[in-house]
Amino acid sequence: MPVDPQARLRARYERIEAQLAGLFEKNPDPISRMATAAALLHHKLSHFFWTGFYRLAAGELLVGPYQGPLACSVLERGKGVCWACITRCEPLLVPDVESFDGHITCDSRSRSEVAVPLMGGAGQIAGVLDVDAKRLDAFGQTDVDGLTRVVALIYGR
């Protein structure tokens, strides 16, 4: 009997979450945790093209730790998937970035995207985990759920 691809993906996220939880016991620094999470996610999930964090600092979204090709260093305020994620304070699943009003193109090879809000230690929004893929409709609810659990580990929530 064939294995359900979503069940396999859920199991992979569970293993990643457990591995990160163990690694984070040794280092409470959120930036170090972001770097570790970005590296592990990027190398364990083959559909990830760009994997990283944008940090909210002084009212701007600045690139944080990431894996993949060169990124936009500052995202234009109020535009794009990441700012929409910050404004709505909820995960965003974008099957086709070209159809997202105000999409910011950092790399033209990115075709779909998922963004998950990063809540800081005091419960305020601190940034977003942003993941891009080279193919359309590469992400689903399993990714949103898995990434949401991973992001919760950054500040130990």
Key phrases:
globular; 157 residues; Beta-Lactamase; 6-stranded antiparallel sheet; alpha+beta; 4 helices; 6 strands
Layout of secondary structure:
Elements: H1 5-24, H2 30-44, E1 50-57, E2 60-67, E3 74-75, H3 80-88, E4 92-94, E5 112-119, E6 125-133, H4 141-154
Antiparallel strand pairs: 1-2, 1-6, 2-3, 4-5, 5-6
Helix pairs in contact: 1-2, 1-4, 2-4
Protein described:
The chain is an alpha+beta fold and 157 residues long. The chain has one domain (5-154): GAF domain (Beta-Lactamase), CATH 3.30.450.40. The chain contains 4 helices and 6 strands; from the N terminus they run ααβββαβββα. It has helices at 5-24, 30-44, 80-88, 141-154, and strands at residues 50-57, 60-67, 74-75, 92-94, 112-119, 125-133. It has a 6-stranded antiparallel β-sheet, sandwiched between helices. The longest helix is centred in the first third of the chain and has 20 residues, at 5-24. It is globular and about 35 Å long. The mean pLDDT is 94.
